[in-house]
Design brief:
This is DUF6858 family protein. β4 and β5 form a beta hairpin. The protein is 24% helix and 30% strand. Strands 1-5-4-3-2 form a five-stranded antiparallel sheet. The protein starts with 11 loop residues before the first strand and ends in a 10-residue tail after the last helix.
């Protein structure tokens, strides 16, 4: 038997925005948007939508931050490369979507694959309304 431990850490991408900065009005709508983005990508596949808040609240020992009103994960995978069995530990990908008092927060672990990061950042930034310049 061989056992290893990796201390590799990946940064977390976080995008927090108010309700007036987006045309989306709920976590469900935002998750639907991400699902459409995933399904339109040539190498990504949608796996599931997980209601993290409902699950945590259903546990007797479940604890949820006071500011969280809704929280779901959109689970998917980019199938571009599988260089080693260890790569499975960081897969599949997940984008977290939370509704908080101030608006919404989108989070995901940045991947070691630039193509995946670029796609996820583009998708996240696509949630924001285009701000017109005031003359």
């Amino acid at each position: 038997m061989k056992q290893t431990f990796s201390t590799t850490e990946y940064p977390v991408f976080t995008l927090e925005f108010s309700r007036n900065e987006t045309s989306f009005d709920s976590v469900d709508a935002i998750c639907g948007y991400f699902r459409a983005c995933i399904e339109a990508h040539r190498a990504a596949v949608f796996i599931a939508e997980f209601d993290h808040l409902a699950h945590t609240m259903s546990l007797p020992e479940g604890q949820v931050g006071d500011e969280i009103r809704a929280a779901k994960n959109v689970v998917f995978c980019f199938g571009i490369a599988l260089p080693s069995p260890q790569a499975l530990a960081g897969r599949p990908r997940s984008i977290g979507v939370a509704e908080i008092e101030q608006g919404f927060m989108v989070t995901f672990l940045e991947a070691p694959m630039p193509i995946a990061n670029a796609a996820m950042e583009d998708w996240a930034n696509g949630l924001l309304k285009v701000q017109s310049a005031v003359a």
